[in-house]
Amino acid sequence: MTYIDVILPLPLKVNFTYAVDDDMAQKVKRGCRVVVPLGSKKHYTGIVDRIHHEVPLGYEVKYAFGLLEEQPAVLPQQLQLWEWIADYYMCAKGDVYNAAVPAGLKLEFKPKVETHVRLTEGYRSEETLQPMLDSLKRAVKQQDLLLSYLQLSAFFEGAPCEVSKQDLLAHHNTSVAVFEALVKRGVFETYPYVISRLPEKEQQVSGLKPLNVYQQRALCQIKQCFEKHSVCLLYGVTSSGKTEIYTHLIEETIRQGKQVLYLVPEIALTTQITERLKKVFGIQIGIYHSKFSDPERVEIWNKQLSDNPYLIILGARSSVFLPYQNLGLVIVDEEHESSYKQQDPAPRYHARNTALMLASMYGAKTLLGTATPSVESWFNATETGKYGLVELKERYQEIQLPAILPVDIKELHRKKMMVGHFSPVLKEKMEEALARNEQIILFQNRRGFAPMVECHDCGWVPHCVHCDVSLTYHKHTNQLVCHYCGYTTAVPHTCPECGSEDLRDRGFGTEKVEDEIREMFPQARVARMDLDTTRSKTAYEKMIRDFEKRRTDILIGTQMVSKGLDFDHVHLVGILNADTMLNYPDFRSYERAYQLMAQVAGRAGRKGERGLVVLQTGHVDYPIIKNVMNNDFEAMVHGQLAERQVCHFPPFYRLVYIYIKHRQQRLTESMTAQMTAQLIIVFGEERVNGPMQPAVARVHSLHIGMIMLKIEATASFAQARKLLLQVEQLMRQDARFKSLQVYYDVDPV
Length: 749
Known about the structure:
Elements: E1 2-7, E2 16-20, H1 22-27, E3 33-38, E4 42-52, E5 66-67, H2 76-88, H3 93-100, E6 112-119, H4 126-135, H5 140-152, E7 163-164, H6 165-172, H7 176-184, E8 188-195, H8 213-228, E9 231-236, H9 242-255, E10 259-263, H10 267-281, E11 285-288, H11 294-305, E12 312-315, E13 327-333, H12 351-362, E14 365-370, H13 375-382, E15 388-392, E16 403-408, H14 409-414, H15 424-435, E17 439-443, E18 452-455, E19 472-474, E20 479-481, E21 488-490, E22 503-506, H16 510-520, E23 526-529, H17 537-548, E24 554-557, E25 570-575, H18 579-582, H19 589-601, E26 612-617, H20 623-629, H21 633-647, E27 653-662, H22 665-683, E28 688-692, E29 698-699, E30 702-712, H23 717-732, E31 741-746
Parallel strand pairs: 9-14, 9-15, 10-12, 10-13, 11-12, 13-14, 16-26, 17-24, 17-25, 23-24, 25-26
Antiparallel strand pairs: 1-2, 1-4, 3-4, 3-5, 6-7, 6-8, 18-22, 19-20, 20-21, 27-30, 27-31, 28-30, 29-30
Helix pairs in contact: 2-3, 2-12, 5-6, 5-7, 8-9, 10-17, 19-20, 22-23
């Protein structure tokens, strides 16, 4: 008897074993999709992980219902990657399956089908067709429709084209009855035709742009790096032309017959980069991210399994899961970005680190590119020698980096000199830029109108009923919104605590900035780019295209506007409040604040004269502000490395956050405390921090406990994970704790 171990799209730690009949046993392969029963009523599409003849003991084995295809839908390298992710990030293979595979492949996928029209076999030559045309002289509408078909199908040109029934009727503007009359005469017949959802139209391509002397030198150094290292960090200042270097590397890789994965942290970036790459590579490039519909993602997946796959995939983090047949190069653009880390649900993987593992499985090279490297990548390139390092410190066309002008808003508030949330300096520079017909980017790293509403008399603040967070006020919808669970409620007219009508908003987000800008500059064309305004794929594209075409004068945004976007006519960038980034309780806050400020500053003055950045802060004397002003990344990173070594943080230690969740607060606190005590016994007190409360201690009505585990980078991390799971199993022996959720965030960002 043949058996198969199957991965199901469920958060289960084990695979399920099923028997297969003799017919299926001859056809099934590892990676194929099979339909299997689970329980008495449920059926799932599983992925075959192993085929064997070992009789399962202790239970009756069920039979698999059917094989969905005879060729694997998941390649061996993908299954190997799934196994690594499940092991390293401490989750189930079913979690990885759920994240990796489009929903359409978890069912029997149905392609998009149109009804097409063709001539019946008896009328496919001019000799047989002409008598029919003559016989239709009295049925003029039928004759005209037949002539329209012959025109659309290029019948007389000897190069027949596909014609859909819908297009034929629309072209001739006739009724279905006329069409059906020709079907009855035996002239037309219809048939189903599978339509691809992917762009297949050839487009004109141009050659590679020549590199300047600095870019060419960097390209040569990268190639030399790849002779000694599988990973190279390209540290290039903003607007130094890293994308052009990527393009040359891509061209060389596909010329060798290999595939390229080009990762970007945000969907917004794909719009600009796609246009640039398609000018060079045409239809050889495929795009993959979560804004595409599920059927589109399925078609891309299937194309990558075909004999004619895309040679280049450009995508966000989920594109690491696509099938690759001959991967030769992985590019991780803006490698420092925290957007590469999946937060919820599991698997909580980091796409950059997963891409490194993926590349190693294929023997491919990986290029990490950024103007502000992560502390870990910098350490790996400069201290451990794990990565190669190439530096590109000259901007394209040797344009200077923007001047950064700090403004002390604390002092201006004291003197009552602020206009809303704009300093006199920023307002003046904006007026000058608009007068010169230049574009402006304003950065505020909070969406919504105001982070909270407060009663001025008693201090009451509306909170989410499901989460321990204040509600954010959104003026456009006139609602209070929880940014954790999505709960919404109307804005109260009076305070429910004291009855006061004096409710005031506190703080400000991008929506409030937009309101103030429209009031200050009523003639300016304003757009806002944040999660609220870019929920669809087309919204991103339209906003970026409008700004490129200069249909927008002022672009207001969250961190989306900081990530690699390239605009020719932006002279001025305003950072409205740097302090919101600095005052965050996280060991990475200074690193992240520097990266965000340096990246958004890099949007200014990319073409023409030197740009200007107005940086508003209440702490102009902070070292991090001076680092940004001087564009001194190395001073920032060296300071951070010194602090982290003392405090036992990455890259000197690995972190695992352990989260415990339950609806009962007392039970959550009890298990968190007991698990902390047990971890201290196993790992030692110096490696365990806890029990702790996360910044938000209740989400979706679940109370959350947290423990931080620190493991030396030189220690066996695999052994640490094994011990951690053993501690969890020990805790589960207590009947009270069996229903609690426990999950792990490995290498949190």
